[in-house]
Amino acid sequence: MTEPRCAAISADLEEPQAGTAATAAAWICLEQPGPWGRDALTQSRLDPALGAELARRAADTGVRVLLIRRPGRHADTHHDAPRRVYLAATTPGRPWLERTDLADPAALLDLDFAALAAGVPAGLGEPVTGPLLLVCANSRRDVCCALRGRPLAEALAATRPDTVWECTHTGGHRFAPTGVLLPTGYTYGRLDTDFAARLLDHADRGHVVTDRCRGRSTHAPHGQVAELAVRDLTGEHRDVLTVHGDTVHHADGSAWHVTVEPRDLPAARPASCGAAPTPATGLVATAVRRLVPVG
After folding, report:
1. pLDDT-based confidence at 108, cuts 50/70/90?
2. What is the pTM of this model?
3. 169-206 pLDDT tens trace
4. What gap in Å lies between CA 15 and CA 268, rounded to an integer?
5. 198-to-92, 185, 193, 205, 278 alpha-carbon distances in Å
6. In the chain, at which residue ranges do the beta strands (DSSP E only) sit?
7. SS3 helix, strand, coil % of the chain, rounded to 5?
């Protein structure tokens, strides 16, 4: 497999990235060295019964389970060693991230998935104060994620160890390289090394970057588009916005009604690396109206 397979998704076929982030209120990230299959939780060196049970418990709870590994060579020679685990809740205004090392990843089955999705700290490990960037590198799901994502993650990790990890499929591989920032859940596409480094610097200061942003995983696609539209209009970069339906609320009481509509994209495009182009649509904010407070 060679880089030209990725060339099918080119700049002249760009589509709006807003509204394309995976939806997740919380994330469980489990270190698993070695190769990952297309369905990584059941097709890796992880016990497939455990992977299937984690997937079952996460289903319909708002929790997303990913496998992660350190960038660079990942021959599976230490799979009996303790595994790094990160837990994150993306709750607007009060996201949190914690980490621990587990001798037995089956301990994750003791978690209350519903509470995690509701933003209740798990208390499983120690708090992490800085951001974490997960870069999709799951080649069996989409080859572009490995060809573009792995070099990016390795370059970033050279100066930011433990801050950048490779991860399994997060969706939107047509935007590779893609990354998810935790604990906020903001997701980005078409990353490059310089931009990703700046992204981490801004996140470390609590600033939200809207450039190349696919949305915050906390929200459904329409809400992702609405929030980013308000940020672009107002220049607000702090974590002070919440979304309820078609309305975006600011912590200071301000609110905006955002009209989000699907739009046919001007040209067919592949849904993933190497796929045949097909007609597609994107979500666009067509109007943002500030609401007048009552009273």
Report:
1. very high
2. 0.90
3. 888 878 889 999 999 999 999 999 999 999 999 999 99
4. 10
5. 22, 17, 9, 11, 34
6. 26-31, 63-69, 83-89, 96-102, 126-127, 132-136, 164-167, 179-182, 186-188, 213-216, 241-244, 247-250, 255-264, 281-290
7. 25, 25, 50
